[in-house]
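User:
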Amino acid sequence: MAAHESEFSVQAMCQVLGMSRSGYYAWRNRPASQRAQANERLRVQIREEYQLSRKTYGSPRIHAALKRKGVVCGRKRVACLMRLDHIAARRARRRIPHTTQKDPSAVPAPNLLNQDFSSPAPDRKWVSDITYIDTAEGWLYLAAVLDLFSRRVVGWAMAEHMETSLVQQAWNMAVLQRCPSAGLLHHSDQGSQYTSEVYQQPARPSSSTSKLGTIVNVCIPPSATLARRSSNANRDINRVYKIGSRPTAKGEIERLLFFEYRS
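Assistant: Predicted structure:
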């Protein structure tokens, strides 16, 4: 009735609905209940988290973000309030490039990691993978190296292609930052970039630090830990940058890697 007061008289609406005018005005002037007030405060917080995520978070991730800040609420309640405000996570595009392209002549290594994604200390086990970001200028490829002990991305590289030089740059960054000792287990999938002779060679003339003493474990299946991190980053970036340039996407990815995926 309140929404239609400009179209119809209160008396006419009360007669149609079979209620008294005094009852309607008592309801309209009654202060909001504690639950309604709490919902309004929660809706403000939900909208803030939604904007901070660049409109990429759905109810599960917004609920998790609120929970980290000490906000007590249920996930179903968050989902309900998001529906009332017509808030929903942006959907990523379905077009998917194939980043794992095997070299038929390459001999796969045994799975030394053996699905053991734990590590007793830093720089003992690294996993590598390639993901992709859709921009208005075309695909942007990201190669990353993750330390299984800290779950931090220790090295990365971005380019318009996914050639061997891309994964090589990510490896070089990781080595220069971490200076791992001999015996590091480096795990990846069987993509041709990782099985190439250039990447597998024990030393690289282009870098002062070589892979001497490092076990390069190229096998299937790839690391679920890095796959999950790559998937999250991929989803976040693709939702934001459906339209945008590669340099803009690169800047956003570096911000995510420094502040969200390195901790």
